[in-house]
Amino acid sequence: MTAVDRWSFELVVVGVSALALVILTAPTVVVLIASFTGGQSLRFPPQGFSLQWYDALLTRSQEIGVAFRNSIAVAAMAAAAGTMMAVAAAMALSRRTTRASRALDAAFMAPLTLPTLALGLGLLMLISIAGAEPSLVTLVVGHTIIVAPYVLRTTSASLSQLDPALVDSARTLGAGPAYAFRTVVLPLIAAGIAAGMFIGFMASFDNVSISLFLADAGTDMLPLRLWNIIENLLDVRAAAASGLLIAVTGVLLMVMERLTRFSRQMRN
Amino acid sequence: MRTARSLDWQLAAPLALFYVAFVFAPIGLLVAVSFAESPEFDTFSLHQYARVFGDAYQRGILADTLQIGAQTTAVTVLLAYPLALLHLRSGPTVRRLILLAILLPLLTSTVVRTFGWVVILGRQGLINTALLGAGLVEKPVQLLYTHNALVVALAQIELPLMALPIINALARIDPTLIDASATLGARRWRTFFKVVLPLSLPGLIAGMALVFAGSISAIITQTLVGGGRMLFMPYHLYQQAILANDWPFAAALAVILLAFVLMVVGSLLAFERSMARWRHAG
């Protein structure tokens, strides 16, 4: 009985974990392999090997390039705006356990579970009532909502690890609040802020539900463009674009892991 | 000290004002517009809600969306929990690899990962090529645009959001409790159900809330893997708002989607709180 108990438990843990890891990695690996196809269509396994689709992507795909630059610009501005506001808010909420501070924290985290599609439609209505048009500015506003919760979460986690005695010592020794923040607090929470900013940037870069309502014809966004290509043309250039995104994401993740021990931040 | 405190609170003001203007005001507006009887906004009534709940086709779209959310949540729990258990008892290198295998997909664009499923499940895709090659089928099987394929693809998209909170919750459990259970003669399954699972409940509940909310509004995966034959709330809402220009109806659909997410997330959290109380009382 004990042996059956142990073996059945081990089998489930190891077996299902293996399946989960295959499912987690399969789509990314398959897209990466498919992007090097020598053929004209998306078959798997691919026919032959070539870089033709990467060449097509880089030389004959101006509209994808424009959408890529728009996505980068919006994500960068949203990450900057969201980080400034969220770090300030995290400072205000740290070490408070009152009902009001908990409610405020929950409200700030709401965009993570609210269907952002509903939010996108609401923002579009707000813009039209204000007599404005969807533009780069409205996109940045919408995407800032995507970034803020991530930065708030990681910054709050870093602040909760911070020994308050350090700040008290700095203040006792005559440092003003701003000086103490800059020289004591900021260096200690910088990794947390950076991790939140990174994941917020990626979430904004990936966002469709807000962009769908707030992007106009002049500000095409990369996920929308790729979605369109995959749905209507099933063009292999989409695989090449995906291959590049996977490579860049992988490299960024490694850099962030080095700089901020990103995986540890995310676990907490 | 007093002035320092009040200054402290003001630091939350920019984000709070931003949320009031661009999160809560739009949602309020959505609710207001959903009560308009026509796109001319002349009279207000529950007409738009009657259009959804009074029509079998509309009710079906809502029910299908909620079903996809529930099934995806169930599949991700079954896949993520064992992975989290493996992470808990592995050495530092394996732990790191598991975390990277979870984080890389999480950070990779949803469009890209969904595209991967299109390539895997297509008529000339990985699975069909393998089945044909092995002689198990004579012509390609329809995998793409089926209900089950959509659940699998969504489970992959949402898996990291389930695995991370469970891993976090398991790491907080005092290992001596598990040892004590084993020393007292409890078998592995019993220790798991009586000690590990109840103590990891907060992480599990957090993961379920994120995955349910994420999978019912995953418009890209729903349209690319689900295809045109299946219609779910997000694309329905988008069509009504942008293509049909019927804002009041689209607003009602958005409010209904929002309400169901809040209800499900709310009941999950209430369940977790009552379990916590019950544990402390017992």
TrEMBL record, chain B:
Keyword rRNA processing recorded: no
Transmembrane segments: 12-36, 68-86, 98-120, 149-171, 192-220, 247-271
Domain ABC transmembrane type-1 intervals: 62-270
Membrane topology field: Multi-pass membrane protein
Keyword entries, A-Z: Cell membrane, Membrane, Transmembrane, Transmembrane helix, Transport
PROSITE patterns, per the entry: ABC_TM1
Subcellular location: Cell membrane
Family: Belongs to the binding-protein-dependent transport system permease family. CysTW subfamily.
Name listed for the protein in its UniProt record: ABC transporter permease
Record organism: Roseomonas fluvialis
Organism ancestry: Bacteria, Pseudomonadati, Pseudomonadota, Alphaproteobacteria, Acetobacterales
